[in-house]
Automatic annotation (TrEMBL):
Residues 301-353 form the HNH nuclease domain. InterPro entries: DUF222, HNH, HNH_nuc. One of its GO terms (molecular function) is nucleic acid binding. Coiled coil: none annotated. It comes from the Bacteria. The lineage of its organism: Bacteria, Bacillati, Actinomycetota, Actinomycetes, Geodermatophilales. This is DUF222 domain-containing protein. Pfam families: DUF222, HNH. It comes from Geodermatophilus sabuli. Gene3D superfamilies: 1.10.30.50. Belongs to the Rv1128c/1148c/1588c/1702c/1945/3466 family.
Length: 389
Protein backbone atom coordinates (compact mmCIF):
# COMPACT_ATOMS: atom_id res chain seq x y z
CA UNK A 1 0.00 0.00 0.00
CA UNK A 2 1.53 3.31 -1.11
CA UNK A 3 1.47 6.36 1.12
CA UNK A 4 1.75 10.04 0.40
CA UNK A 5 5.00 11.92 0.92
CA UNK A 6 4.77 13.87 4.18
CA UNK A 7 3.60 17.36 3.41
CA UNK A 8 2.69 16.47 -0.16
CA UNK A 9 -0.65 17.13 -1.79
CA UNK A 10 -2.75 13.92 -1.81
CA UNK A 11 -4.47 15.02 -5.03
CA UNK A 12 -1.09 15.39 -6.73
CA UNK A 13 -0.19 11.93 -5.50
CA UNK A 14 -3.45 10.56 -6.90
CA UNK A 15 -2.93 12.20 -10.29
CA UNK A 16 0.61 10.80 -10.44
CA UNK A 17 -0.64 7.31 -9.58
CA UNK A 18 -3.31 7.47 -12.29
CA UNK A 19 -0.75 8.59 -14.86
CA UNK A 20 1.50 5.71 -13.86
CA UNK A 21 -1.41 3.30 -14.26
CA UNK A 22 -2.04 4.70 -17.75
CA UNK A 23 1.59 4.07 -18.67
CA UNK A 24 1.40 0.54 -17.32
CA UNK A 25 -1.85 -0.10 -19.23
CA UNK A 26 -0.13 1.06 -22.41
CA UNK A 27 2.73 -1.34 -21.77
CA UNK A 28 0.29 -4.21 -21.14
CA UNK A 29 -1.63 -3.51 -24.35
CA UNK A 30 1.56 -3.37 -26.40
CA UNK A 31 2.82 -6.59 -24.81
CA UNK A 32 -0.44 -8.36 -25.58
CA UNK A 33 -0.26 -7.18 -29.19
CA UNK A 34 3.35 -8.33 -29.52
CA UNK A 35 2.41 -11.75 -28.19
CA UNK A 36 -0.57 -11.86 -30.56
CA UNK A 37 1.61 -10.99 -33.55
CA UNK A 38 3.95 -13.84 -32.64
CA UNK A 39 0.99 -16.21 -32.05
CA UNK A 40 2.51 -16.90 -28.65
CA UNK A 41 -0.70 -18.31 -27.17
CA UNK A 42 -0.51 -21.26 -29.53
CA UNK A 43 2.68 -22.36 -27.79
CA UNK A 44 0.52 -23.13 -24.76
CA UNK A 45 -2.13 -24.79 -26.89
CA UNK A 46 -4.61 -21.90 -26.82
CA UNK A 47 -6.32 -20.32 -29.79
CA UNK A 48 -5.92 -16.63 -28.95
CA UNK A 49 -4.46 -14.14 -26.53
CA UNK A 50 -7.96 -13.58 -25.19
CA UNK A 51 -8.23 -17.21 -24.09
CA UNK A 52 -4.63 -17.20 -22.78
CA UNK A 53 -5.28 -14.12 -20.63
CA UNK A 54 -8.44 -15.70 -19.21
CA UNK A 55 -6.87 -19.05 -18.44
CA UNK A 56 -3.33 -18.09 -17.42
CA UNK A 57 -3.78 -14.62 -15.92
CA UNK A 58 -7.29 -15.09 -14.50
CA UNK A 59 -8.69 -11.90 -16.01
CA UNK A 60 -12.33 -11.67 -17.04
CA UNK A 61 -13.39 -12.31 -20.62
CA UNK A 62 -14.31 -8.64 -21.01
CA UNK A 63 -10.95 -7.39 -19.72
CA UNK A 64 -9.03 -9.88 -21.87
CA UNK A 65 -10.92 -8.75 -24.97
CA UNK A 66 -10.30 -5.09 -24.09
CA UNK A 67 -6.55 -5.65 -23.76
CA UNK A 68 -6.44 -7.37 -27.15
CA UNK A 69 -8.52 -4.65 -28.86
CA UNK A 70 -6.46 -1.87 -27.28
CA UNK A 71 -3.22 -3.45 -28.42
CA UNK A 72 -4.49 -3.60 -31.99
CA UNK A 73 -5.81 -0.04 -31.86
CA UNK A 74 -2.48 1.39 -30.69
CA UNK A 75 -0.84 0.10 -33.89
CA UNK A 76 -3.26 2.13 -36.03
CA UNK A 77 -3.36 5.24 -33.85
CA UNK A 78 0.29 6.11 -33.11
CA UNK A 79 -0.41 9.59 -31.73
CA UNK A 80 -2.95 8.19 -29.29
CA UNK A 81 -0.48 5.42 -28.44
CA UNK A 82 2.22 7.98 -27.64
CA UNK A 83 -0.16 9.86 -25.34
CA UNK A 84 -1.08 6.57 -23.67
CA UNK A 85 2.60 5.76 -23.16
CA UNK A 86 3.05 9.19 -21.56
CA UNK A 87 0.22 8.54 -19.13
CA UNK A 88 -2.04 11.22 -20.61
CA UNK A 89 -4.69 8.85 -21.96
CA UNK A 90 -6.51 6.07 -20.14
CA UNK A 91 -7.09 2.50 -21.27
CA UNK A 92 -10.80 3.25 -21.30
CA UNK A 93 -10.26 6.09 -23.77
CA UNK A 94 -8.20 3.81 -26.00
CA UNK A 95 -11.03 1.27 -25.88
CA UNK A 96 -13.44 3.96 -27.10
CA UNK A 97 -11.14 4.92 -29.97
CA UNK A 98 -10.62 1.25 -30.86
CA UNK A 99 -14.20 1.18 -32.18
CA UNK A 100 -13.04 3.34 -35.08
CA UNK A 101 -10.23 1.05 -36.23
CA UNK A 102 -11.86 -2.36 -36.41
CA UNK A 103 -10.81 -4.32 -39.52
CA UNK A 104 -14.10 -3.53 -41.28
CA UNK A 105 -13.88 0.19 -40.55
CA UNK A 106 -10.24 0.37 -41.60
CA UNK A 107 -11.25 -1.08 -44.97
CA UNK A 108 -14.13 1.40 -45.26
CA UNK A 109 -11.80 4.29 -44.37
CA UNK A 110 -9.27 3.24 -47.01
CA UNK A 111 -12.01 2.93 -49.66
CA UNK A 112 -13.26 6.45 -48.83
CA UNK A 113 -9.79 7.98 -48.75
CA UNK A 114 -9.97 8.92 -45.06
CA UNK A 115 -6.77 10.43 -43.68
CA UNK A 116 -6.28 8.23 -40.61
CA UNK A 117 -3.36 10.39 -39.42
CA UNK A 118 -5.74 13.33 -39.11
CA UNK A 119 -8.35 11.21 -37.35
CA UNK A 120 -5.67 9.97 -34.95
CA UNK A 121 -4.68 13.56 -34.14
CA UNK A 122 -8.30 14.58 -33.52
CA UNK A 123 -8.96 11.61 -31.24
CA UNK A 124 -5.76 12.28 -29.29
CA UNK A 125 -6.48 15.97 -28.83
CA UNK A 126 -9.97 15.29 -27.54
CA UNK A 127 -8.78 12.46 -25.27
CA UNK A 128 -6.05 14.60 -23.68
CA UNK A 129 -7.91 17.88 -23.36
CA UNK A 130 -11.63 17.21 -23.08
CA UNK A 131 -14.02 15.13 -20.93
CA UNK A 132 -14.39 11.43 -21.61
CA UNK A 133 -17.96 11.87 -22.89
CA UNK A 134 -16.69 14.19 -25.64
CA UNK A 135 -14.38 11.50 -26.97
CA UNK A 136 -17.27 9.04 -27.05
CA UNK A 137 -19.30 11.49 -29.14
CA UNK A 138 -16.42 12.27 -31.51
CA UNK A 139 -15.71 8.59 -32.16
CA UNK A 140 -19.41 7.88 -32.67
CA UNK A 141 -19.68 10.78 -35.13
CA UNK A 142 -16.72 9.41 -37.08
CA UNK A 143 -18.22 5.92 -37.18
CA UNK A 144 -21.57 7.32 -38.32
CA UNK A 145 -19.90 9.38 -41.09
CA UNK A 146 -17.93 6.32 -42.16
CA UNK A 147 -21.14 4.32 -42.51
CA UNK A 148 -23.75 6.91 -43.58
CA UNK A 149 -26.23 4.24 -44.65
CA UNK A 150 -25.83 2.26 -41.45
CA UNK A 151 -24.49 -1.28 -41.19
CA UNK A 152 -25.29 -3.96 -43.71
CA UNK A 153 -28.60 -5.70 -42.92
CA UNK A 154 -27.02 -8.76 -41.33
CA UNK A 155 -28.92 -9.15 -38.04
CA UNK A 156 -26.34 -11.46 -36.50
CA UNK A 157 -23.67 -8.74 -36.46
CA UNK A 158 -25.61 -6.67 -33.94
CA UNK A 159 -26.68 -9.47 -31.64
CA UNK A 160 -24.85 -10.04 -28.39
CA UNK A 161 -25.53 -11.60 -25.01
CA UNK A 162 -23.20 -11.59 -22.01
CA UNK A 163 -23.85 -13.83 -19.01
CA UNK A 164 -22.22 -13.01 -15.66
CA UNK A 165 -22.39 -15.55 -12.84
CA UNK A 166 -22.15 -14.26 -9.27
CA UNK A 167 -20.70 -15.94 -6.20
CA UNK A 168 -24.12 -17.18 -5.07
CA UNK A 169 -24.79 -18.80 -8.45
CA UNK A 170 -27.28 -16.15 -9.59
CA UNK A 171 -26.97 -14.85 -13.12
CA UNK A 172 -26.95 -11.35 -14.54
CA UNK A 173 -27.02 -10.68 -18.25
CA UNK A 174 -26.99 -7.85 -20.71
CA UNK A 175 -27.25 -7.85 -24.46
CA UNK A 176 -28.52 -6.35 -27.66
CA UNK A 177 -30.83 -7.68 -30.37
CA UNK A 178 -31.71 -6.30 -33.76
CA UNK A 179 -35.32 -5.21 -34.32
CA UNK A 180 -36.46 -8.55 -35.75
CA UNK A 181 -34.63 -10.64 -33.16
CA UNK A 182 -36.03 -8.49 -30.38
CA UNK A 183 -39.54 -8.89 -31.76
CA UNK A 184 -39.15 -12.65 -31.78
CA UNK A 185 -38.01 -12.71 -28.17
CA UNK A 186 -40.86 -10.48 -27.04
CA UNK A 187 -43.39 -12.57 -28.97
CA UNK A 188 -42.10 -15.73 -27.25
CA UNK A 189 -42.06 -14.17 -23.77
CA UNK A 190 -45.38 -12.37 -23.76
CA UNK A 191 -47.61 -15.48 -23.59
CA UNK A 192 -45.77 -16.58 -20.44
CA UNK A 193 -46.00 -13.06 -19.00
CA UNK A 194 -49.74 -12.80 -19.55
CA UNK A 195 -50.86 -16.40 -18.97
CA UNK A 196 -52.12 -17.57 -15.59
CA UNK A 197 -51.96 -14.23 -13.79
CA UNK A 198 -54.00 -14.77 -10.63
CA UNK A 199 -55.96 -12.04 -8.96
CA UNK A 200 -53.75 -10.02 -6.68
CA UNK A 201 -50.55 -10.72 -8.64
CA UNK A 202 -48.27 -7.91 -7.46
CA UNK A 203 -45.21 -8.80 -9.52
CA UNK A 204 -43.71 -5.94 -11.50
CA UNK A 205 -43.42 -6.10 -15.26
CA UNK A 206 -39.69 -6.79 -14.86
CA UNK A 207 -40.39 -9.68 -12.49
CA UNK A 208 -42.97 -11.18 -14.83
CA UNK A 209 -40.53 -10.95 -17.74
CA UNK A 210 -37.85 -12.68 -15.65
CA UNK A 211 -40.26 -15.46 -14.72
CA UNK A 212 -41.34 -15.71 -18.35
CA UNK A 213 -37.76 -16.17 -19.52
CA UNK A 214 -37.25 -19.05 -17.08
CA UNK A 215 -40.53 -20.62 -18.17
CA UNK A 216 -39.49 -20.28 -21.81
CA UNK A 217 -36.28 -22.18 -20.99
CA UNK A 218 -38.28 -24.83 -19.09
CA UNK A 219 -40.55 -25.27 -22.10
CA UNK A 220 -37.62 -25.63 -24.52
CA UNK A 221 -35.92 -28.21 -22.28
CA UNK A 222 -39.12 -30.18 -21.65
CA UNK A 223 -40.16 -30.49 -25.29
CA UNK A 224 -36.85 -32.11 -26.26
CA UNK A 225 -36.42 -30.07 -29.42
CA UNK A 226 -33.10 -28.45 -28.52
CA UNK A 227 -29.88 -29.49 -30.30
CA UNK A 228 -28.10 -32.49 -28.75
CA UNK A 229 -24.90 -31.74 -26.82
CA UNK A 230 -22.21 -34.44 -26.93
CA UNK A 231 -24.77 -37.17 -27.67
CA UNK A 232 -27.00 -36.08 -24.76
CA UNK A 233 -30.09 -33.89 -24.62
CA UNK A 234 -29.61 -30.61 -22.72
CA UNK A 235 -30.74 -30.95 -19.12
CA UNK A 236 -30.50 -29.24 -15.77
CA UNK A 237 -28.16 -31.32 -13.62
CA UNK A 238 -27.16 -31.10 -9.97
CA UNK A 239 -24.69 -33.26 -8.05
CA UNK A 240 -25.41 -33.60 -4.33
CA UNK A 241 -24.32 -36.10 -1.68
CA UNK A 242 -26.97 -38.61 -0.61
CA UNK A 243 -26.58 -37.63 3.04
CA UNK A 244 -27.35 -33.99 2.17
CA UNK A 245 -30.23 -34.94 -0.10
CA UNK A 246 -32.07 -36.96 2.55
CA UNK A 247 -31.21 -34.64 5.44
CA UNK A 248 -34.21 -32.36 6.11
CA UNK A 249 -31.86 -29.45 6.90
CA UNK A 250 -31.43 -26.68 4.34
CA UNK A 251 -27.84 -27.69 3.53
CA UNK A 252 -26.51 -24.48 2.04
CA UNK A 253 -24.20 -24.69 -1.01
CA UNK A 254 -23.91 -28.48 -1.10
CA UNK A 255 -25.34 -29.06 -4.59
CA UNK A 256 -23.15 -28.41 -7.66
CA UNK A 257 -24.94 -27.62 -10.91
CA UNK A 258 -23.77 -28.24 -14.45
CA UNK A 259 -22.63 -24.68 -15.16
CA UNK A 260 -20.81 -24.28 -11.85
CA UNK A 261 -23.45 -22.72 -9.61
CA UNK A 262 -24.02 -24.13 -6.14
CA UNK A 263 -27.44 -24.55 -4.54
CA UNK A 264 -28.78 -25.78 -1.23
CA UNK A 265 -29.88 -29.34 -0.57
CA UNK A 266 -33.41 -28.01 -0.11
CA UNK A 267 -33.32 -26.58 -3.62
CA UNK A 268 -31.92 -29.87 -4.94
CA UNK A 269 -34.79 -31.77 -3.30
CA UNK A 270 -37.19 -29.37 -5.00
CA UNK A 271 -35.61 -30.09 -8.39
CA UNK A 272 -35.71 -33.82 -7.71
CA UNK A 273 -39.51 -33.77 -7.35
CA UNK A 274 -39.97 -34.10 -11.11
CA UNK A 275 -36.48 -35.18 -12.19
CA UNK A 276 -34.53 -38.40 -12.56
CA UNK A 277 -32.16 -39.36 -9.73
CA UNK A 278 -29.02 -41.36 -10.49
CA UNK A 279 -26.80 -43.05 -7.93
CA UNK A 280 -23.04 -42.46 -8.15
CA UNK A 281 -20.54 -44.04 -5.72
CA UNK A 282 -17.16 -42.31 -5.26
CA UNK A 283 -13.96 -43.93 -4.05
CA UNK A 284 -11.55 -42.47 -1.48
CA UNK A 285 -9.63 -40.62 -4.23
CA UNK A 286 -12.75 -38.84 -5.43
CA UNK A 287 -13.13 -40.90 -8.59
CA UNK A 288 -16.55 -42.36 -9.46
CA UNK A 289 -16.67 -46.14 -8.91
CA UNK A 290 -20.27 -46.99 -9.72
CA UNK A 291 -22.89 -45.06 -11.68
CA UNK A 292 -25.81 -47.42 -11.12
CA UNK A 293 -27.72 -48.88 -14.06
CA UNK A 294 -29.24 -45.83 -15.73
CA UNK A 295 -27.02 -46.27 -18.80
CA UNK A 296 -25.93 -49.58 -20.26
CA UNK A 297 -23.42 -48.43 -22.90
CA UNK A 298 -19.86 -48.13 -21.68
CA UNK A 299 -19.19 -44.89 -23.61
CA UNK A 300 -21.92 -43.08 -21.69
CA UNK A 301 -20.73 -44.58 -18.43
CA UNK A 302 -17.21 -43.29 -18.99
CA UNK A 303 -18.38 -39.86 -20.16
CA UNK A 304 -20.59 -39.30 -17.15
CA UNK A 305 -17.88 -40.46 -14.78
CA UNK A 306 -15.32 -38.17 -16.42
CA UNK A 307 -17.69 -35.20 -16.19
CA UNK A 308 -18.20 -35.80 -12.47
CA UNK A 309 -14.50 -36.31 -11.78
CA UNK A 310 -12.94 -33.59 -13.97
CA UNK A 311 -15.71 -30.98 -14.05
CA UNK A 312 -14.26 -29.17 -17.11
CA UNK A 313 -11.57 -29.43 -19.79
CA UNK A 314 -8.38 -30.55 -18.02
CA UNK A 315 -5.95 -28.86 -20.44
CA UNK A 316 -3.88 -26.27 -18.55
CA UNK A 317 -5.42 -22.81 -18.64
CA UNK A 318 -8.67 -23.88 -20.32
CA UNK A 319 -11.53 -24.92 -18.02
CA UNK A 320 -14.15 -25.16 -20.80
CA UNK A 321 -17.46 -26.56 -19.45
CA UNK A 322 -18.28 -30.25 -19.77
CA UNK A 323 -20.79 -29.76 -22.59
CA UNK A 324 -17.97 -28.46 -24.80
CA UNK A 325 -15.82 -31.51 -24.10
CA UNK A 326 -15.02 -34.90 -25.59
CA UNK A 327 -13.78 -37.90 -23.60
CA UNK A 328 -10.20 -38.52 -24.70
CA UNK A 329 -8.32 -41.83 -24.38
CA UNK A 330 -5.10 -40.87 -22.57
CA UNK A 331 -3.52 -43.97 -24.11
CA UNK A 332 -5.07 -44.39 -27.54
CA UNK A 333 -7.17 -47.50 -27.91
CA UNK A 334 -5.16 -48.41 -31.03
CA UNK A 335 -2.16 -48.59 -28.71
CA UNK A 336 -3.93 -50.84 -26.24
CA UNK A 337 -5.63 -48.14 -24.17
CA UNK A 338 -8.85 -49.19 -22.47
CA UNK A 339 -12.19 -47.40 -22.60
CA UNK A 340 -12.22 -46.75 -18.89
CA UNK A 341 -12.38 -43.83 -16.49
CA UNK A 342 -8.74 -44.29 -15.51
CA UNK A 343 -7.72 -43.90 -19.16
CA UNK A 344 -10.02 -40.96 -19.87
CA UNK A 345 -9.61 -37.20 -19.83
CA UNK A 346 -12.21 -34.53 -20.48
CA UNK A 347 -10.97 -32.20 -23.24
CA UNK A 348 -12.72 -29.47 -25.22
CA UNK A 349 -12.75 -29.91 -28.98
CA UNK A 350 -9.78 -27.64 -29.59
CA UNK A 351 -7.57 -29.26 -26.98
CA UNK A 352 -8.66 -32.75 -27.93
CA UNK A 353 -7.25 -31.90 -31.37
CA UNK A 354 -4.11 -30.41 -29.82
CA UNK A 355 -3.47 -33.57 -27.81
CA UNK A 356 -3.70 -35.62 -30.98
CA UNK A 357 -1.08 -33.33 -32.55
CA UNK A 358 1.72 -33.45 -30.02
CA UNK A 359 0.44 -32.06 -26.72
CA UNK A 360 -0.09 -34.48 -23.82
CA UNK A 361 -2.16 -34.51 -20.62
CA UNK A 362 -1.34 -36.66 -17.62
CA UNK A 363 -3.28 -37.27 -14.42
CA UNK A 364 -1.25 -37.31 -11.22
CA UNK A 365 -1.84 -39.66 -8.25
CA UNK A 366 -3.22 -36.62 -6.40
CA UNK A 367 -5.96 -36.29 -9.01
CA UNK A 368 -4.60 -33.12 -10.62
CA UNK A 369 -3.85 -32.89 -14.34
CA UNK A 370 -0.64 -31.68 -15.97
CA UNK A 371 -0.19 -30.60 -19.59
CA UNK A 372 2.94 -30.94 -21.73
CA UNK A 373 3.92 -29.32 -25.01
CA UNK A 374 5.18 -31.34 -28.00
CA UNK A 375 8.77 -30.57 -26.93
CA UNK A 376 8.12 -32.14 -23.52
CA UNK A 377 8.06 -28.89 -21.53
CA UNK A 378 5.14 -28.36 -19.19
CA UNK A 379 2.43 -25.74 -19.71
CA UNK A 380 2.31 -23.92 -16.38
CA UNK A 381 -0.54 -21.76 -15.17
CA UNK A 382 1.15 -19.32 -12.76
CA UNK A 383 -0.03 -19.26 -9.15
CA UNK A 384 -1.98 -16.32 -7.86
CA UNK A 385 0.12 -13.15 -7.86
CA UNK A 386 1.65 -12.34 -4.51
CA UNK A 387 0.94 -8.86 -3.11
CA UNK A 388 3.65 -6.29 -3.63
CA UNK A 389 6.03 -5.89 -0.73
Amino acid sequence: MCSSVPGGDPLDDLAAALAERNRLDARLARSVRAAENEQAAQRDGLASMTSWLRGHCRVSAAEAARLVRNGRALEHLPALAEAHDAGLVTAEQVAVAARAVTPERLVAAAEQGVDLVRIDAVFTGVAVEQPHADLVQVVQRYVDDLEPDGPEPDPTEGRALTLSKHADGSLSFRGHLDAVGGERLQAALEPFVQAGRPAGDERTRAQRLGDGLVQLADYALATGGLPVLRSRKPQVAVVVALTDLVDPATGENVGRMGFGATISAARARWLACDGAISRVVFGPDGAPLDLGREQRLVDRYVRRAAELRDGCCVFAGCGAPTHWCDVHHVIHWLDGGETSLENSALLCERHHTQVHHGFRVERQPTGTWRTYRPDGSEVIVPPALAPAA
